[in-house]
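User: Predict the structure for this protein chain, please.
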Amino acid sequence: MPTVVYVDVLLFINTIITYAVLITAERLFKRQTKVLRLIAAAFAGSLFSLLIFVGAKGFFFSLLIKNVSSLLITLIAFPFSGKKEFFRTTLAVIAVSAVYGGMFILIYQLFKPPNMVIVNDIVYFEFNPLVLLLCTAIIYIVISLFHKLFRERIKNSVIPLKFSVNQHEYGCIGKIDTGCNLREPFSGAPVIIVDRSVMKIDDTVPKRVIPYSAVEKNSFLYAVKADCVKLDGKTVDREIYLALTDIKNDSFQAVINSEIVR
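Assistant: Here is the predicted structure, written as C-alpha cells:
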C-alpha cells in the first residue's frame, strides 16, 4: 500500500531537519548568526521538500536541488561576508546536510520504519514528534563527537609557518590551536597570531583592528593582511591576517586558527 504524504507533516519534518543542519554547521564551523535567520532559512529549505511529489528524477536532479537549496538557505541563514566565506559556508552546509541525509538513509536501511519515504534525499515518515527529535539529536551528537575527536587530534600540532608581508618573507613555528577563532571583522578572514620578534610591521602597511575577548577583559590587536601564507610547505589559498602580540613560548612563535587547516 503506497504511503500517503501530508504536506504539513512533510514541511514540519524537513524544517526540523534543516534547522538541525544549520545549527550543526554554525557550531562546527563557528559562523555566528541569529536564531530568526536560522528559522527562516530552515522553513525556506523545507519548501524544497515539496519536490517529493514529482518523484525520483535521478542523481543529477537530486544534486542540483541539493546545491540550489544549500545556496538559498546559506544566504538566508548567515550574514554575507564576502564571496569566499559564502562559498565556504555553503560547502559546510552541504557537507553537514549530506551527513544527516546519510544517517537517515542508514536508519531507513537498518530498521525499515513503516510509512517512511526518501526521495531525492527528502525525508518523510508518519512519526511521533519525540521520535523525530530523538533521531535528529542522536545524529547531532554523533557528528559533534567525531568533530571533537578531530579537533583534539590537531589541538597540539606544531608546524612550520612561512608568510610574506609587503614583499618581505618571514618564517617560524606555529601551533594549531582549536581555541583560537579570531577573525578580521569586516572580511571574516581568519587571523594568525604572531610573536613580535618574528616580524616588524612597516608604518606604511595598512593595519586592521582585531577585537578579542580574554579572561575578565576585552582588548584588540593590530593586524596586517598577508601576501602569502604557507603551512607545512602548502600554500593557503585564502585571505589571512597576521596579528602581532607577545607569545613568550620557546616551542612556537605563532598561534594558528584551526579553521585554516580544516
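The radius of gyration is 22 Å.
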